[in-house]
Here is the input.
Amino acid sequence: MEGLTERWITPIIRRQVRKPDDPANDALRQLILDNERKERQVPNSPQPLHSQVFESTFDFLDWPDPPALALKQLIHRGLAEAIINLSNVDQQQLMRFRIVCESWFHVTRTGGYVRSHNHPQHSWSAIYCVDPGDEQPANDHDAGYIQFFDPRVNADMFLDMANSDLKSRYNGHSMRFRPRTGDMILFPSFVWHAVEPYHGERPRITVAANFRFNAGS
Here is the structure.
């Protein structure tokens, strides 16, 4: 349309970076379940957690175990690609940046959920799905969907027939989906998001990370 300016569009990248049957997912799942114990649990989470959600200390991608190191490389590659494609930073500039990262895993058992939050003091965040849990939960709303919310606070203050069905890049509806094994999601850290309640026999397992960048020395 002539005269159209597109502003405030929020990039959310969802990509399957490993096939579900990749043995790397099994190795990562086993490493996480083997470390679902008190000495690996974060002592003071930034937000109150449901009792059925285990949150690890914030250094998971720095563990020396091969599955954690392989995932770190995978996420770093995806993040670098996103930054180069979405900003005016080129590869040479990016290589001079110093990355500061915090990372952790969640093991969610039946009834667990994560309330709406964002990640202050970081620029980019990532989620990797190790295991979404039961393949066919009894109820769609018990499947542990991730929900992303429009960062424009008042975008949905009034909806009628003229604005409730805008194209996806303009509308104010939340983005809701169930991640698959091997999915990586990248998004700006200011975006509010939540995990809906999960009910199932198989634990739901994800890895999350936050990133900020400083000028290299």
Observations:
- The first strand starts at residue 13 and ends at 16.
- The chain is about 20% helix and 30% strand.
- The chain has a mean pLDDT of 95.
- The longest helix spans residues 66-86.
